[in-house]
Design a protein that fits this description.
This protein is of the alpha/beta class. The protein is about 40% helix and about 25% strand. The strands form 3 sheets. The protein has a 7-stranded mixed beta sheet, sandwiched between helices. A two-stranded antiparallel sheet has the order 1-2. It is globular and about 40 Å long.
Length: about 200
């Protein structure tokens, strides 16, 4: 069983504590579902003294992400100024022209983890919404997710990758789940963690 020091608050109702090094995925439909996952996820990270980096994309861009945190009671101006929170649109992080920078992004995350710990943060909390993927970049991004899943294990990093459910065919959903520690789902008012066959059989 993980020690208390290796656990952190997920922030989502129904899911209490998650281990550092976890690489989660979530399939959503629409802006409201996406915000319902990511706003409390980051609010919890800020409360836990984690450095939080939110890579935003439609249907919830960087400006809307900040507004969602403000509405949740986060002093966004203060945490942005201190460096505890970074919110950027995906084009500034994942793409260089039309070439996806997968391995470079992984190295960047590891450097950000080291920087966060050196500055006194408990860890690093990140997300990326992948509506920017195309059929041409899908395989490259799946390779990136595979590297993340292997590399982040045991690190002081918490990761939640969000995928538009309506845009993922059954085979793509299976590809995503296989490259993550677990999948999150919200069938009602509470959240739950799906692992193994339960996640892979998601319709």
């Amino acid at each position: 069983m993980p020690s208390a020091g290796s656990l952190t608050d997920c922030g989502l109702p129904g899911i209490k504590r998650i281990p550092y090094g976890v690489h989660m995925c979530h399939f959503y439909d629409g802006r409201e579902q996406l915000a319902a996952a990511l706003v409390p996820y980051f609010a919890a990270g800020l409360r836990a003294n984690e450095r939080c980096i939110w890579i935003a994309a439609e249907p919830l861009n960087a400006a809307q992400a900040k507004l969602g945190l403000i509405e949740a009671g986060v002093d966004v101006a203060a945490v942005l100024a201190s460096g505890a929170l970074v919110v950027r649109d995906f084009s500034e992080w994942y793409a260089e022209g039309e070439r996806l920078r997968g391995t470079e992004v992984v190295r960047y995350w590891l450097a950000e983890e080291e920087r966060a710990l050196a500055e006194g943060y408990a860890g690093l909390r990140i997300t990326g919404n992948v509506t920017f993927l195309t059929p041409e970049t899908w395989a490259t991004f799946m390779d990136y997710e595979d590297v993340v899943n292997r590399t982040f294990a045991g690190r002081r990093i918490v990761t939640l990758c969000t995928y538009p459910g309506h845009a993922c065919a059954a085979a793509q959903t299976l590809e995503v789940v296989r490259r993550h520690t677990c999948a999150l789902e919200r069938p009602d008012d509470g959240w739950q963690i799906l692992t193994g066959n339960a996640a892979q059989e998601r319709p």
